[in-house]
Amino acid sequence: MEIGIQGVEGSFHNEAASAYFEGKEIKIQPFHDFRSLAQAINAKQLDYGVMAIENTIAGSILPNYALINEYDLKITGEIYTRIEMTLIAHKGKTAADLDQVFSHPMALLQCADFLADYPQIKLTEYDDTADSVRMIRDKQLLNAGAIASKRAAELFNMEILNTNIETNKKNYTRFLIMKSRMNGQDHKPQKASLRVITKHDPGSLADVLQIFKLHGINLTKIQSMPILGKPYQYAFNIDVVWEDYDNYKDALHALNSKVELVKVHGEYIKGNIPTV
Ligand SMILES: O=C(O)C(=O)C[C@]1(C(=O)O)C=C[C@@H](O)C=C1
């Protein structure tokens, strides 16, 4: 199976894809950015794409919500992984020697507290964590560092200066597994991702929440996103879980008559949040 990720070997997307498809034969297809990955999924060039959507320290990756909507991507699964950040540089260096650190913007955000202790370090966003290690090695940037996984340090034969530099150890990223079409379902899903646009009337969001409440549906996430061309109007990306699939179907039916739009981006098996 061809699996598209943003990033190269050694990136956290690579770890997430390998963990989700464990036991299956997969070929990883790297992409420089999330948009080109979304385009390839939409163009059916991949069996699946894996895309980070939120992190417990840095929060939601808002552009990815926009891409899911723009390319009408379908979510077929999810995986949560523990993210451990490592400061990596050339041999013999310490953090105090560095004047620049490269990484993916989400990784830099996750290490903000550690980096605040080194105000001399200029933070520079790069395509992905692992590729930033490769780049400082290939360009021989001797006073530069990169933030990535331990695996990336090993892969590119660079030195690990500090481990677990994320601001909080409960650092998890949720990745979505995506296709251009829904899979034929061979099991009962436990979770759904919806896009809802309410009427612009008082209490219309409360009505939506009331429907979920009445049907015993639990919300795990609600994310408002601007609607293009309608300044200060918002769509809600809502993730829900249930005990009984029929309750969810009934809630969806009730929702349809109450809102301007309800779109199902995916119904899938919910991922386990790691405990380490
Ligand atoms: O740069 C990487 O290694 C990635 O896989 C990207 C990414 C992200 O998009 O959030 C994945 C997980 C971590 O949260 C940090 C970075």
Would you kindly provide a brief summary of this structure?
This protein is of the alpha/beta class.
Task: Please provide a written account of the structure.
It is a single chain. This protein has about 280 residues and is of the alpha/beta class. The protein folds into three domains: about 1-80 and about 170-180, Periplasmic binding protein-like II (D-Maltodextrin-Binding Protein, domain 2, 3-Layer(aba) Sandwich); about 85-160, D-Maltodextrin-Binding Protein, domain 2, CATH 3.40.190.10; about 190-270, ACT domain (Alpha-Beta Plaits). The protein has helices spanning about 10-20, 35-40, 60-70, 105-110, 110-115, 130-140, 150-155, 205-215, 245-255, and strands spanning about 1-5, 25-30, 50-55, 60, 75-80, 85-90, 100-105, 120-125, 145-150, 160, 170-180, 190-195, 220-225, 230-240, 260-270. A hairpin with a 3-residue loop joins β3 and β4. It holds the Pfam family PDT. Its EC number is 4.2.1.51. It catalyses: prephenate + H(+) = 3-phenylpyruvate + CO2 + H2O.
Give short descriptive properties of this protein:
276 residues, D-Maltodextrin-Binding Protein, domain 2, Alpha-Beta Plaits, five-stranded mixed sheet, 9 helices, 28% helix, elongated, binds prephenic acid
